[in-house]
Amino acid sequence: MTLEGLELRWIDIPLVSPFRTSFGTETERRVLLVRAVTGDGDGWGECVAMAEPVYSPEYVDGAAQVIRDFLVPKLTPDADPWAAERAFRPVHGHPMAKAAVEAALLDAWLRARNTSFGEFLGAVRPAVPSGVSVGIMDSVPRLLEAVDGYVAEGYARIKLKIEPGWDLAPVRAVRERHPDVMLQVDANTAYTLADARHLAKLDPFDLLLIEQPLPEDDIAGHAVLATRLATPVCLDESITSAAIAADAIVRGATSIVNIKPGRVGGFLEARRVHDVCAAHGVPVWCGGMLETGIGRAANVALAALPNFTLPGDTSASSRYYATDVTEPFVLEDGCLRVPTGPGIGVVPDQGVLRELTVRTEFLPVGIHG
Ligand code: SMG
Ligand code: MG
Question: What pLDDT score was predicted for residue 104?
Answer without folding.
Answer: 98
